[in-house]
Amino acid sequence: MTTDMKKASSEVLANADAVAMRMAELLIDAIETCPEQKARIALSGGSTPKRLFEILAQPDMAKKIDWSRVEIFYGDERHVPVTHDDSNHKMAQSLLLSKVSLPASQIHPMPTSSSAKEDAATYQSILQKSYGSDTLEPGRPLFDVVMLGLGTDGHTASLFPGEEVLDNDRDWVSISAPKTAPHDRLTLTYKAIQSSRLVVFLITGENKVPMLKRLKQADDTIPSGRIKSDGKILILSDRAAAGEG
Ligand SMILES: O=C1O[C@H](COP(=O)(O)O)[C@@H](O)[C@H](O)[C@H]1O
């Protein structure tokens, strides 16, 4: 089964906190029902997942998760040192990963210390090692959950409009050099994102109204509109992003 954006489900929740809580529930469920020993989860970057990370780090919530069954990956990363304020990993590490019982060996940040091209190839090898093969097999998804955001230009992960990576159907990880963003980036490709049990878009705030509308219409002229999953796709948004605020 392949799900494209035309077949995506959506839920509109009261506010950004409710979206984060719902995402936390989905993660708990995905970890509990993961058919393999460990659930591979790709975190999204940007500002939207911040609230989720804070919620998951709260002791009452953190104890609902068997962290020994979790492997953390990233959907994209700014090609900056991990100490940089724009680093997705820095944010996830400080708000969540440093606060729960998750061994460092189960956290896989995108490397950013060599050239972006070399770092993309290294991350692909890290994913292939975890998956146990360098070929994606039908019926055995790479990720249990891929979290995605939505940029006001329609990008998701670091799949930006006009970038070569949009046509890369060979690699799992690629470089992206958006002209509209301050740093080069590394990103999962469409192919890697598709190999998933569940893709969830987290979209909050009224500045996302026009793009969320296009995403729900499965507009394939924006990069997010071309996302597919071998499992399910869910768009979680708040009322403000849905234009109901
Ligand atoms: O999927 C993603 O979307 C965001 C958009 O970020 P936000 O700050 O509006 O939440 C993107 O830039 C991010 O890196 C990515 O993972």
From TrEMBL:
Catalytic activity: 6-phospho-D-glucono-1,5-lactone + H2O = 6-phospho-D-gluconate + H(+)
A Pfam family reported for this protein in Swiss-Prot or TrEMBL: Glucosamine_iso
Function: Hydrolysis of 6-phosphogluconolactone to 6-phosphogluconate.
Residue ranges of the TM segments: none
EC nos: 3.1.1.31
Gene Ontology MF terms in the entry: 6-phosphogluconolactonase activity
Taxonomy, superkingdom: Bacteria
InterPro entries xrefs: 6-phosphogluconolactonase_DevB, 6PGL, Glc/Gal-6P_isomerase, NagB/RpiA_transferase-like
All residue ranges annotated as the Glucosamine/galactosamine-6-phosphate isomerase domain in the record: 15-232
Gene expressing this chain: pgl
Similarity comment text for this entry: Belongs to the glucosamine/galactosamine-6-phosphate isomerase family. 6-phosphogluconolactonase subfamily.
Full protein name: 6-phosphogluconolactonase
Keywords: Hydrolase
Organism: Aristophania vespae
Pathway(s) where this gene product acts: Carbohydrate degradation; pentose phosphate pathway; D-ribulose 5-phosphate from D-glucose 6-phosphate (oxidative stage): step 2/3
CDD domains: 6PGL
